[in-house]
């Protein structure tokens, strides 16, 4: 439910009833006063309650989904957008055919789109959520590739006894590498450089 109209003795009472029905806080809605309360004559005749229309604002996830669907339309791409949203994050996944243009070389376009959707989702909102975007299961496949790469390069660094520097990656992909090698007593990882050229270094323990 996105909108309700409620009445009450006061505007505040009517708004409170609407918020209860919608299950949201006042920061998440827009309120329009349709009728101010009136006590009538001597408070007995012609009295009128307050009436308000309360509309729930789109959530960050809904805003991101709407923008993504518009991008697909403008690019003449056919894809279905699935949305999952909780208190901390927004997850968007696009399913369809011939969507490689949304991914780009090693996910560069996908990461740029994710950043854009993150900005749009939290614009003019006090609620800040992390936005995650995937297309055709690319990120899961990429994570598997990165984990295998991390293990292979860790063995290489240990065998050669020197650091190995990977190519620049997004924060999300760097985290996959860090987590794949976390807790090892023969190898450790750290990041160096500035975004968007920040890199992971895999180093053997002395």
TrEMBL record:
Domain comment in the entry: Has an N-terminal Jag-N domain and 2 RNA-binding domains (KH and R3H).
Highest taxon, organism lineage: Bacteria
Entry keywords, A to Z: Cell shape, Cell wall biogenesis/degradation, Chaperone, Cytoplasm, RNA-binding
HAMAP family: KhpB
Family label: Belongs to the KhpB RNA-binding protein family.
A GO cellular component entry from the record: cytoplasm
One annotated GO biological process: peptidoglycan biosynthetic process
Location relative to the cell: Cytoplasm
Quaternary structure note: Forms a complex with KhpA.
Domain R3H: 140-206
NCBIfam families: Jag_EloR
UniProt name for this protein: RNA-binding protein KhpB
Pfam families registered for this protein in UniProt: Jag_N, KH_KhpA-B, R3H
Role: A probable RNA chaperone. Forms a complex with KhpA which binds to cellular RNA and controls its expression. Plays a role in peptidoglycan (PG) homeostasis and cell length regulation.
Protein's UniProt keywords contain Cytoplasm: yes
Jag_N domain: region residues: 5-55
GO molecular function: RNA binding
Signal peptide (from-to): none
